[in-house]
Design a protein that fits this description.
Largest sheet: 5 strands, parallel
Number of strands: 10
Number of helices: 12
Order of helices and strands: HHHEHEHEHEHEHEHEHEEHEH
Structural class: alpha/beta
Shape: flat
Radius of gyration: 20 Å
Strand content: 15-25%
Strand order of the largest sheet: 1-5-4-2-3
Helix content: 25-40%
Distance between the termini: 37 Å
């Protein structure tokens, strides 16, 4: 049965087997070498307890170069968030890995969570992939807003809303932030393809003179990409949420395939 059905047994050389085995792997995470170095070092039994920070202390830390990771849902982030924060929901699978794709391993992070206690879990997840967590915003966004500190928002639409805007000839650049294989399988015609992990290195390819709508398969990666663009000074960012390219296609909108 194995000889007849196991495709791995059809390879004639080890090189063919290895090439096939790694063909479906995603890109190597940028912090992979850092994680390997940690694993080769002394055993870390305690990840440490992040420090609760007041809104003023968070403001000072940001000025010192810390990056704010908003671990709430993308809905909450889009509605209101601290300027300069990036959106990566700790409720989603792969939370820490997504953050590690877009922030340098040497930069200190501050967590914003939706409820007391959850920021500790989010901080542990980030530390487990080798990221340095300086602390968390004590009291979350409630504490921040109670002091009338500034907030920003991201415009949020669903795939049908995007279709309506494009049909109305609105000047919108559609930015697909999925992996290359996903994009090749089917994407919105005319969309620009930059996987979210490489977005910061390719910002020059993203137009600044028009609105930019980020899209993925479900709305999570596109939310992270939208927050990165806003952090980098793009002021007309749209987050395509509550679905992605698959939803777009299922609702009868056109797609095209190929790289």
């Amino acid at each position: 049965f194995e000889l007849e059905h196991n495709r791995a047994l059809g390879f004639t050389t080890e090189a063919e087997f290895v090439a096939d085995a790694i063909a479906s792997l995603g890109d190597r995470p940028p912090n992979a070498e850092h994680v390997v170095a940690l694993n080769r070092g002394s055993l870390i039994e305690e990840l440490g307890t992040p420090t609760p920070l007041s809104p003023r202390a968070v403001e000072v830390a940001i000025a010192d170069g810390a990056i704010l990771v908003d671990a709430r849902t993308t809905d909450q982030f889009d509605e209101a968030h601290i300027p300069g924060a990036i959106s990566a929901s700790a409720y989603d699978t792969g939370f820490a890995t997504k953050v590690a794709q877009v922030v340098p391993s040497e930069v200190e992070l501050i967590v914003v969570a939706a409820s007391d206690g959850y920021e500790l879990e989010a901080a542990d997840l980030l530390a487990s992939v080798g990221l340095r967590v300086r602390g968390f915003l004590a009291g979350g966004m409630t504490a921040w807003r109670s002091e009338n500190r500034p907030v920003k928002r991201v415009e949020r639409i669903d795939p049908d809303g995007l279709a309506d805007r494009l049909a109305a000839a609105d000047e919108i650049a559609v930015l697909d932030v999925r992996d290359a294989s996903e994009f090749a399988a089917g994407h919105i015609p005319g969309s620009l393809h930059i996987p979210y992990a490489g977005l910061l290195e390719r910002l020059a390819e993203v137009p600044r003179d028009t609105s930019v709508a980020t899209v993925c398969s479900g709305g999570k990666r596109s939310g992270l990409a939208a927050s990165l663009l806003q952090r980098e000074g793009f002021d007309r960012v749209i987050h395509v949420a509550d679905g992605g390219v698959g939803t777009w296609e299922r609702r009868g909108h056109p797609v095209e395939s190929g790289s």
